[in-house]
Automatic annotation (TrEMBL):
PANTHER family: DNAK FAMILY PROTEIN, GAG-POL-RELATED RETROTRANSPOSON
Protein name per UniProt: Secreted RxLR effector protein 161-like
Length: 172
């Protein structure tokens, strides 16, 4: 998705038949399981399922064009690699043009929020005891930006590599 593009629920012509938009978004949501590079664009476009407009459909077509050009991309874990899973989160401030609501992304499923509260207290205690420490990560290197922002091409592809998204058609 292009950087600095903001969609609105009131701009552009309403789609006469939104069913194709609904089907495309549903399929794209399924693809985000193995294609985290689609997550932000699909998340933004799925917000307009109720009354999709032509600019939203045009953006879906751009996502499909991107998919056509990257058929070998996906998240791959080598059998020989020592996998260390890390979680990142980020949020924007009043990013929605229509409602001024914020978007927050956390790629980890939390079953019950009570456990998160307990974990938060444990982390706070460990920080105070200097068992763990927080590290500053420069804005350009924030992996969570893949899920919360439209990024420039160079930064987008750099972060995809950090996430383990590879192109199987590129010689190694």
């Amino acid at each position: 998705m292009a950087q600095n593009v903001k969609f609105s629920s009131t701009e552009g012509e309403l789609l006469a038949d939104p069913s194709s938009y609904h089907r495309l978004i549903g399929r794209l949501i399924y693809l985000t399981i193995s294609r985290p590079d689609l997550a932000y664009a699909v998340q933004v476009l799925s917000q307009y399922m109720d009354k999709p407009r032509q600019p939203h459909l045009d953006a879906v077509h751009r996502v499909l064009k991107y998919l056509k050009g990257t058929p070998g991309h996906g998240t791959f874990f080598s059998v020989t690699s020592d996998i260390h899973l890390k979680a990142f989160c980020d949020s924007d401030c009043a990013g929605c043009v229509d409602t001024r609501k914020s978007v927050t992304a956390s790629p980890v499923f939390h079953e019950r929020t009570k456990h998160i509260e307990i974990d938060c207290h444990i982390v706070r205690e460990k920080l105070q005891a200097n068992v763990i420490k927080t590290l500053h990560v420069a804005s350009y290197n924030q992996l969570s930006d893949l899920f919360t922002k439209a990024l420039g091409c160079v930064q987008f592809h750099s972060l995809l590599g950090e996430m383990g998204v590879l192109d199987i058609h590129t010689p190694s």
